[in-house]
Amino acid sequence: MEHQKENMDQTENVSRIPIKVEHEGEITRKEPFWVFGYGSLCWNPGFDYQQSVTGYVKGFSRRFWQGNTTHRGTESKPGRVATLIEDNEGVTWGKAFLIAAENKAALPYLSTRECKLGGYRIYTVNFHPRPCLFSSPSSSSDFQTDRNALLYIAMPENRHWLGAAPLPDIAKQILECHGSSGSNAEYLLKLADFMRDEIPEALDEHLFSLERLVKKFASDMRICLKTLMGEKEEIKEESKEAKAVVPSFQFASRVPDKKLRCVNM
User: Which reaction does it catalyse (predicted)?
Assistant: First the structure.
């Protein structure tokens, strides 16, 4: 029932939050611009940038409702990645990147990664930088001011859309899917690690519930999370002391007795 309610809520919330749709072919920038990431861009942007800052956007909640058939899944077994659904009370934390106007590679790269392969569309939203707890009022200046940022969102009409499902089902799907960029579990776990390490005060029940379930199912199924995260298992070498051969005379007793005689040279 919970996932049905979420699906209904999403349908009701569409277009309630004012966001500007960007047409992919029309995006040209004469000044530096910001891109806000809330999924793999947080820990793997893949493009050059001048500055990055953690923060949030209002009016959205993160959900693993978008399918992926390239980076984290296949056509036969699509993975699940994050998108945003409109939620009047929602707050989604992530990281924004400042891209130089002369950087002509970033937007085409993102267009391929997010739009052509991922099924996302481009929007402009208001980004709120994370308040700096240790800065003085005089030092906050422009670094702490809100600014517009490009944002990539997958909408229900795209062909990869999977939509809501019970959290245990989503977790199991994430655990068993892989794509060209690695396991689907790596995507989820690295995003959860990013949130915990860089924005520990942020709340995201959907994300952290999925993390707990994936870890539980992996443990129950005896699946190595390090392998899913792309890490090689360390093979402990035996110490030299363990490898050292202890002198033994056990073979001496097997040598047959022989009589020796002197040979005159």
Answer: glutathione = L-cysteinylglycine + 5-oxo-L-proline
